[in-house]
Amino acid sequence: MLPVIDASTLQVPADAGQFLHSLGGAVAIEHRVDDTLPWCVVSVLVHGNEPSGFFACHQLLKAGFKPAWNTAWVISSVRAARTAPEFTHRHLPGEYDLNRRFGVHPIDDPVTALAFDMTDYIRERQPRWVLDIHNTSGRGPAFGVAVANSQAIASLLAPFTDRLIVTHLVVGSLMEQNFNCPVVTLECGGSADPAAHSCAVLGLRQLLASPALSASPSQLTLYQHPVRVQLRAGLSLAYGDSACPGAVLTLRSDLEQLNCVTAHPGTCFGWLQSPLADALSAVNDQRQDVIEQLFEVDKGVLQNRVPMQVFMATPRADIALSDCLFYAA
């Protein structure tokens, strides 16, 4: 069961790090405005190295902000976030990535149990909407991710961004769960970018202060059905300005500059010292590997065959290897 704290009883430290260490672990902090009002759920720190949502939660709680909705702040990967250096661990070494364990059975480890407890807690609240706030590991603008496009989803995203990725990829994320309401992941920018922290706090202040979602959301730029580009297990990865000796794949060191821009055919992504399909996969939401339709290798240079939008390209090799190199739509 997820522990619950009444926001009205909190003594919020001035410093976000102190606030983090004051929490015993994963927790839901509840603002009960009126029992006749619906709940909304804001999820933060599903990944311990993605702090913008947590910083926004701390700032709004510290300021005594009063939402117009019954609001639950679900703060999850507290242990990972407070492990030194703070806010650098996606998850604890040797444990699962929480955002790959939702809907997973059997429940036989603490991370999967937490995913179950979070899901159970959210369903009990029967929320009007769920917003799961993340950061990208590389630089880039804010965007939303959802399993569908609707006016409610556009309204949820309007205070933050005008970009939406619609995906049916199944990876075990919170966003994939059915809560009988709109569920949106917000990627509010790079984890070390002050603009991402501002995006989270200003957007949440606007969203939570209004007693209803906007009836006339801004027009969204849609990116549909991305693929997940991965390096096959056991192969070596490096970053550089040319092929690194000993690395099967060298990604260009400035790859994150491609985030949320159009990569025209022939754009260099890096250097590959192996046959394309032996080294890389690009799985779509039909579970088909389409790597050879999207990419090619020309004299050792890995380049795209078709125009594409790149998302979540990261300069962190550990995340690129354990999760994916990037998404492309």
Structure write-up:
- It comes from Simiduia agarivorans (strain DSM 21679 / JCM 13881 / BCRC 17597 / SA1).
- This is Succinylglutamate desuccinylase/aspartoacylase.
- Helices cover 23% and strands 26% of the residues.
- With 329 residues, the protein is of the alpha/beta class.
- The protein has two domains: 4-223, Zn peptidases (Aminopeptidase, 3-Layer(aba) Sandwich); 226-328, no CATH class.
- A nine-stranded mixed beta sheet has the order 1-2-4-3-5-8-6-7-9, with helices on both faces. Strands 13-18-19-10-15 form a five-stranded antiparallel beta sheet.
- Helix 5 links the parallel strand 6 and strand 7.
- It is globular and about 65 Å long.
- The model has no long low-confidence stretch (mean pLDDT 96).
Spatial sequence of strands, sheet with the most strands = 1-2-4-3-5-8-6-7-9
The number of helical runs is: 9
Mean of residue pLDDT?
A: 96
What name goes with the CATH superfamily of the largest domain?
A: Zn peptidases
Low-confidence stretches: none
* CATH secondary-structure class of the largest domain: Alpha Beta
Strand fraction equals 25-35%
The arrangement of helices and strands along the chain is EHEEHEHHEEHEEHEEEEEEHEHEEEHE
Please give the domain count.
Answer: 2
What's the CATH architecture name of the largest domain? 3-Layer(aba) Sandwich
CATH fold-type name of the largest domain: Aminopeptidase
Which shape, going by the Cα principal axes? globular
Major sheet: size, sense and barrel closure? 9 strands, mixed
Protein name: Succinylglutamate desuccinylase/aspartoacylase
Organism: Simiduia agarivorans (strain DSM 21679 / JCM 13881 / BCRC 17597 / SA1)
